[in-house]
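Example 9 (inverse folding). The structure is encoded as follows.
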């Protein structure tokens, strides 16, 4: 399915950038929104090398979504140049692996602000025009950690569970207006954000995530593009992630017991290695 214009937050790297490349190759106009202008410039250059028409536009906006005035100017610029986007992908996010009692209030707030409030702000800015037109699709990027709680992710999982809940309510509210809502819930993906996290990830978190494995970003993009096109609500890429999701959903007590056993095993392993 081809979208005339696709807007992607967090589009300067990782999943957001790979999705931008995919939709560029399909002939869509692509708008990348992120904070770092130099990364945006590199991302835009990569996308422009993939266009299939000289009429395609690749636009970038360096915006802090907490700045309502800057966000409003961005939305106005997008709509004046490209019209109302047909697809909005909310991929901006941050992660931190730290125990609840050791995490600062500021770090917890930062994760909630970026992962939840940031997604909300951008969705609320673009949705009125999509509703008025009676057509469109929104995809929130959550995580398997937004379905299954994981050791060390009290803030990250809280934010991603919140995204899933917000998206579920929106899906019900927007259905009558012809606007679909999906949520992408990948396991660990080989992205710059994950690489940076690996420098300080808790050993128990690392142990648990290693069992599930790490997906290549192209696998996630392929699943996302297909799921969005079919207006699927929850999109879980990867076989192991699908199995974990099914177990957590249909056998919660058994799955909870299994996860606790993994935590105990990983803790003993860490102590023995010390």
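The amino acid assigned to each position is listed next.
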């Amino acid at each position: 399915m081809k979208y005339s214009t696709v807007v992607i937050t967090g589009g300067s790297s990782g999943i957001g950038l790979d999705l931008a490349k995919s939709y560029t190759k399909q002939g869509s106009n692509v708008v990348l929104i992120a904070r770092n202008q130099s990364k945006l410039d590199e991302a835009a250059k990569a996308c422009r090398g993939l266009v299939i028409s000289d009429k395609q536009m690749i636009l970038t906006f360096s915006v802090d979504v907490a700045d309502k005035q800057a966000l409003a100017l961005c939305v106005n610029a997008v709509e004046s140049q490209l019209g109302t986007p047909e697809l909005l992908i909310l991929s901006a996010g941050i992660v931190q692996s730290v125990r609840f009692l050791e995490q600062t209030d500021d770090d917890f707030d930062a994760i909630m602000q970026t992962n939840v409030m940031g997604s909300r702000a951008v969705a609320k800015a673009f949705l009125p025009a999509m509703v008025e037109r009676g057509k469109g699709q929104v995809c929130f990027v959550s995580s398997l950690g937004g379905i299954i709680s994981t050791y060390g992710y009290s803030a990250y999982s809280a934010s991603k569970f919140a995204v899933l809940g917000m998206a579920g309510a929106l899906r019900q509210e927007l259905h009558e207006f012809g606007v679909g809502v999906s949520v992408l819930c990948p396991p660990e993906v080989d992205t710059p954000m994950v690489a940076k996290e690996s420098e300080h990830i808790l050993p128990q978190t690392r142990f648990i995530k290693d069992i599930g494995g790490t997906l290549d970003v192209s696998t996630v993009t392929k699943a996302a593009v297909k799921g969005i096109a079919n207006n699927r609500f929850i999109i879980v890429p990867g076989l192991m992630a699908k199995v974990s999701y099914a177990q957590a959903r249909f056998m919660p007590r058994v799955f909870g017991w299994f996860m606790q056993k993994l935590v105990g095993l990983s803790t003993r392993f860490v102590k023995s290695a010390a």
